[in-house]
Amino acid sequence: MRRSSTQQKKRSSSIKPQDRNPAAFLNYYFSSSESSASSWSSPLSLPTRGGQMQGQMQGQRGDLYRKKFRLSVLIRVLVAFAIVMMTMMMMMMMMATTFMTFKDSSMSSSSSSSSSSSSSIKAETVHFGGSTTTTGSSTGGSTSKLVVGFEYSINHGDNSSNSSSSDNMTSITSSNNINSSSKRNQKIKREEIVGGDDRRACRVIIENKVDFHHEILESIVLRYPLPWDKYNCSSTKPVMFDFALFDNRFPNGMITCPEKKCPKHLNETEFVGWKRYFERSLQNRTFDRFVDGRTVQYHKLIRYAEYENSPLGPPDAVIDATCDIYQRFLVWLNLGKYDNYCVLHRECDFCEAVHYNKSCFLTPMWTPSQCTFLPSDLPRFSKEDLFDSQDGNDLGFEQTTRVCLFGRERNHTMWANVFLQSPYEKYNVRFVIGSRAYSEKRVYTSRHISPKALSFVEHERDYVEFHKRIAQCDILLPATDPIDRPAHFPPSVSGEKSKRKLTGSISQVVGYKIHSVMHHELERIYHDYFTAPVEVYGDSIQSKVDALTKMIATVAQNKKNDENGKIATSKR
């Protein structure tokens, strides 16, 4: 259907010239106002009212972005300038400090160059690792010995020798004339301890992560050799020993317990008894070490956070008293933050030479080059203390001979029968059985022991009271032989079952100078350490009876002689 000419004319008149021709379209829009042109997002966008408003908003955003960019550049320039200035100031301070230190060191060196002296060296016997080494006599000399994987020098002066008659050990002392002027530029400001040169006091931390082995802590302080020359600390001030013990891990860090049930409260632990003993008898007191003569001070019990946060500063060395409870000590020993050392209680199946070089064992069943010491430093008691708390005073302390068997994993029944075959009634002997590890009396196959001749020490958790019971003994039975307890003997005796472990009774026999009856192979291991008579037996029951009978007679005769001596003295 054809449209009328009127409609065509009307439509043609409504179309603008620029709509008919593309060139005219472009010329029309590019010749529009500046505000309209700025609102186009592209040359082909339509010049609507909404497009103009959108273009204005985008222009404002662009201005804002440019302002932010300029501001960020300015901030970066200022920060860089501040860093450069701080760096320059630090360099200037370091140069000034170096100059003053060099000047102080030069003055100190000139003032100390005339203070050298020589001392005469005396021949001494060094008891180390189960072997005895004698150093020769000379003038102004020194002796070197390999200890725990490092070499240290011992300079013996006339004024530096100490001895310990109670443990029959010879003290080794080191000379104090150390020229410290070369190290004064490294002086660290820490808490000043009385005496000696200007350097800080050495600091050592002893760790114990378990609720046992407290009886070796004193011996670690007094006998564990350390490379003091390696540390930039005083050679004359007392060495400060801190203790990080089981309370740091209770109760979440408990790995093993002496009993089947672990304690639920801290006051039920063995640690609490040792803590009371430490605070009453050791804390802030000084002693001389047996291994090198250095004076030490029992400082304080600490938390793990006090390793670094201490007025004394970080420790020079850390000694773990029970390293082999965790296998990861192999990494800690050589890659730890501090200079770390270990106490190993048995043969280490997974250790290498690098671990042995920083560890000490508690038995002499090792080569002389390996660090060993016997932990025989225990709580001391006077005779009055022992008499006052004597169990069974109805029999009379001085007239009663006490045969004691302490510890777990012993054949208590067998030894009760051995005791019955001895002349215990003739000599008024009492058989004492005890342990900290169980809370119920053992049931024995032999029930013929008189109640007056049998005594139990039940579940004695207190550290001091337990050792007092042991110190009251006249005869101690380690009850350890290669058949029942092969781990406590060398491989030459018990073969593959050997772990070269220490039995705790040996430390008690040596520390308290108690008469003892033991297997001849056990006596052979510790022969050089005993400070009281020992009777030995073999594998038969009769040999045990004979040895115990002989020792009971010896102790009874000694008591009689002592009594006669007192009577003679009183008559004078």
Characterization of the model:
With 572 residues, this protein is α/β, with parallel strands linked by helices. Helix content is 34%, strand content 15%. The protein has helices at 5-14, 17-20, 22-30, 34-38, 49-112, 217-223, 270-282, 329-335, 353-356, 383-388, 412-420, 463-471, 491-494, 504-511, 520-525, 541-571, and strands at residues 120-121, 125-128, 131-134, 138-139, 143-147, 150-154, 163-164, 169-170, 203-207, 239-244, 286-288, 295-301, 317-320, 340-344, 359-361, 401-406, 429-434, 454-457, 475-476, 515-519, 534-537. The strands form six sheets. A seven-stranded mixed sheet has the order 11-12-10-9-13-14-15, sandwiched between helices. Strands 18-17-16-19-20-21 form a six-stranded parallel sheet. A hairpin with a 6-residue loop joins strand 11 and strand 12. The model is unreliable at 1-5, 7-20, 28-49, 108-195 and 390-397 (pLDDT under 50).
Number of helices: 16
Q: What is the gyration radius calculated from CA atoms?
A: 42 Å
| Sequence stretches where pLDDT stays below 50 over 5 or more residues | 1-5, 7-20, 28-49, 108-195, 390-397
- Tell me which oligomeric state these chains represent: single chain
Strand order of the largest sheet: 11-12-10-9-13-14-15
Question: What would the average pLDDT be, to the nearest integer?
Answer: 74
State the share of residues found in helices, binned by percent.
Answer: 25-40%
User: Main beta sheet, described?
Assistant: 7 strands, mixed
Measured by DSSP, the beta-strand proportion falls in 15-25%
